């Protein structure tokens, strides 16, 4: 009885202790709950940070992959600010254009692209010997304000060459049909003239015989011209067979040397002619047609040197790595004038009074019939015509620098 009374007195004497204990217990529970939530928050933050890093790495990887793709494109890509500064460019556009800000803007102004107008149409331009097609896209932000421009640049040089080749072949085909008809109609009366002049020569005196011989010579010359016309109007049919290059060079050496000797005896300027060959080898082709092609090139070289008052010509031949052949005819004449470079392969174009303008077009046809290439290096120090014939089973790839539709390279002589 006494103990119960004492307990009651004790409880009544310390009423705040229970409240403090309860408060402390509640605080402890809240603290533990807060610690658990904080730990959970830390885990969540750690998870989010890890996810963010993973996404950053994925975005960086995607960005690198996209940049790799853009750098690997055969198309040029250029990104400009609204003010014309270069933000980014891939190697292809750097090869075709100059990505330096000032120089690029000067080019864009020259082409009428900069400042960029509201209407943006594709533009064809020429730069560093290439035909380029430039397409421009405006980059806009969320409020449709311009934040820059993307220029897509495509090299259409080969396409332009193909278009020119098709147009040229169409013109030549139409011209060829007309020339073939005229040549056929001319050859019949020429044959009659030659026949009757031969009959008259039997009964004519000395003076009459000389006149008739002049007629026959003129007929022969006209017949040769008609033959060249007919040859040019159709792709020559070649009869390929293996032959020693040395045999071809020996013939050319003998016949071409006579050109210089005869001209010098007639009071013309001195022109030296030499033949070089690294080794004796066999090549497959039509020997007669190839002789005709190389002889024509050497004849042109002689004429260029004669016009320059003298000079030297070198004919060389070497075996290519693919077992084909490379012939070159080099002279130190005046070179080909810039304004004529696009015309020298046009039929009937000539700068000489007695020229027919069929020499180089026929050479080109012969080389193409052999699936070969004809290249020209020319400047004020002279010209070098290079014939490249393929080896067995080889297909020579034509590039923008190759002569196949009336174009010419400009390179310094080494």
UniProtKB/TrEMBL annotation:
E.C. number(s) listed in UniProt: 2.7.13.3
Keyword terms of this UniProt record: ATP-binding, Coiled coil, Kinase, Nucleotide-binding, Phosphoprotein, Transferase, Two-component regulatory system
Catalytic reactions of this protein: ATP + protein L-histidine = ADP + protein N-phospho-L-histidine
InterPro entries cross-referenced by the UniProt entry: HATPase_C_sf, HATPase_dom, His_kinase_dom, HisK_dim/P_dom, HisK_dim/P_sf, PAS-like_dom_sf, Sig_transdc_His_kin-like_C
UniProt-recorded Gene Ontology molecular function terms: ATP binding; phosphorelay sensor kinase activity
Keyword Kinase attributed: yes
Domain Histidine kinase: 181-393
Keyword Zinc-finger: no
EC class name: transferase
CDD domains reported for this sequence: HATPase, HisKA
Coiled coil regions, renumbered to chain: 31-58
Source taxon at top rank: Bacteria
Name of the protein this chain belongs to: histidine kinase
């Amino acid at each position: 009885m006494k103990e119960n009374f004492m307990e009651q007195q004790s409880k009544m004497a310390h009423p705040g202790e229970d409240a403090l204990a309860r408060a402390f217990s509640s605080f402890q529970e809240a603290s533990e709950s807060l610690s658990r939530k904080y730990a959970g928050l830390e885990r969540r933050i750690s998870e989010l940070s890890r996810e963010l890093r993973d996404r950053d790495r994925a975005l960086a990887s995607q960005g690198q992959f996209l940049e790799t793709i853009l750098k690997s494109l055969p198309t040029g890509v250029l990104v400009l600010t609204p003010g014309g500064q270069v933000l980014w460019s891939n190697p292809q556009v750097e090869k075709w254009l100059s990505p330096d800000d000032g120089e690029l803007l000067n080019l864009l102004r020259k082409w009428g692209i900069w400042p960029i107008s509201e209407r943006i149409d594709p533009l064809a331009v020429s730069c560093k010997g290439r035909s380029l097609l430039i397409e421009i896209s405006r980059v806009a932000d969320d409020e449709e304000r311009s934040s820059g421009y993307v220029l897509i640049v495509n090299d259409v040089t080969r396409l332009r060459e193909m278009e020119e080749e098709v147009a040229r072949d169409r013109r030549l085909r139409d011209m060829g049909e007309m020339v073939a008809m005229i040549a056929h109609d001319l050859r019949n009366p020429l044959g009659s003239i030659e026949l009757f002049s031969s009959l008259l020569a039997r009964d004519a005196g000395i003076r009459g015989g000389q006149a008739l011989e002049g007629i026959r010579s003129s007929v022969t010359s006209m017949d040769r011209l008609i033959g060249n016309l007919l040859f040019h109007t159709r792709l020559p049919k070649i009869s390929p067979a293996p032959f020693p290059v040395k045999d071809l060079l020996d013939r050319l050496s003998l016949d071409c040397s006579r050109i210089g000797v005869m001209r010098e005896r007639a009071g013309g300027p001195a022109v030296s002619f030499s033949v070089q060959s690294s080794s004796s080898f066999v090549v497959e082709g039509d020997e007669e047609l190839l002789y005709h092609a190389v002889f024509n090139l050497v004849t042109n070289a002689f004429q260029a040197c004669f016009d320059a008052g003298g000079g030297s010509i070198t004919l060389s031949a070497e075996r290519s790595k693919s077992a084909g052949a490379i012939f070159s005819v080099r002279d130190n004449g005046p070179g080909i004038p810039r304004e004529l470079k696009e015309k020298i392969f046009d039929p009937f174009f000539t700068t000489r009074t007695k020229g027919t303008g069929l020499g180089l077009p026929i050479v080109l046809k012969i080389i193409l019939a052999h699936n070969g290439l004809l290249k020209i290096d020319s400047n004020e120090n002279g010209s070098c015509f290079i014939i490249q014939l393929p080896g067995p089973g080889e297909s020579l790839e034509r590039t923008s620098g190759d002569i196949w539709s009336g174009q010419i390279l400009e390179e310094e002589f080494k």
